[in-house]
Each structure stands twice: as structure tokens, then as C-alpha cells.
Write a structure and sequence with these properties.
This protein is an alpha/beta fold and 194 residues long. It has a single domain, classed as Peptidyl-tRNA hydrolase (Rossmann fold, 3-Layer(aba) Sandwich). Helix content is 30%, strand content 21%. The chain is built from six helices and seven strands, in the order βαβββαββαβααα. It has a seven-stranded mixed β-sheet, sandwiched between helices. α2 packs parallel to α3. The termini are far apart. Monomer.
Length: 194
Amino acid sequence: MFLIVGQGNPGLQYARTKHNVGFMVLDRLAPPASYRLKGNALVAELAVGEEKGWLVKPTTFYNATGEAVAPIARFYKIPPGRILVIHDELDLPPGRLRFKAGGGNAGNYGLESIHKHLGTSAFHRLRVGIGKPPTPEEGAGWVLSGFRPELAPVMEKVLEAAAQLARDWVSEPPEKLQQKYNGLNFAPDTPRAQ
């Protein structure tokens, strides 16, 4: 069994914001109507081959993701190594993905919350590039705004690739996923396109 967690904020006003790319990926794995409330999250079942697991969209806000994830992981007895967290990443431009098994939280409060509530950082992460704001002071507004319309084709491709990585993650080793996905670039001609 496994958990695939999308980070994001609940509510329609946040649905298309950069901070909600985790939810956007999950919506490519199961239709939004298939999610049901369980504790502090919307969950949907996902079967990949012979394995069954859960897609998790926390109904807590982004920075409190762990409050939703840890109880579900404990309930289903899912170890940290079978948890994949999909989140936005300022340090990657739009059109890029980065998969990593374990590691630090790099200032991501949602990851810190999961680490705190699970008691470990040994879960897996899939970072989806959103690019940096023009200035550090604009960070909060940046993650809570949408992508420019001209980036729609780029984001469509990267979100589809992220959904495929999530499916592959269920049965493939981390090293193979890194080789297959970490070098992808769906926006090669727009190095600073956000």
C-alpha cells in the first residue's frame, strides 16, 4: 500500500495557483469527484497494477500538511518510504521536475509539517517547478497567483509527466525515476519564463 500526497490549499480561490500544483497532479490520477473526506483530507483510491493505495489532498492549509498526512499513514500502516509528496518548487523553472527519496525540507513549511508529524523525513518528494518571484519579498503573492496563460502548454506537459512519475513510483526504484524524469525540460527556450 502507498500514499501519494498533493500539497495545496483547500478552496476554489486557490485551485489554479502555483502552490496547488500537487492537487493538479492528483487530479490527473483520479477525477476530483472521486475524492471523499477522511479526517483532514480528501482521499481517493488508486490502483497501479496489483498495488492499491491512496491519493491524499489535505484540507488543512499548505503549511499544516502533516496534520492530514500522518494520521492517514498511521491508520493504513504505511511506512515513510511508501509516501510520495508532490509539491511546488521555487528553485526549479516551470517545465522542470525533480524526484528525490528523502532529504531536507529546503524551507518548505508543508514538508516540515509532514516531517514533524511523521517523525522522519524519509518520505519521497516530487518537486514541480514554478520559478522564482521577481523579488524575495513577493514570494507569498507569487505562490498564491496563477501561471501566465502562455505557460499553459508547458504546465500541461509537466503535470502529465508528474502524474506518470507518480504511477511509475509505485513499482520502480528511485534511481530509475531520477534518471527517467529529472532531466526532462518542457520549456527549453524560456529559461526565466514564469
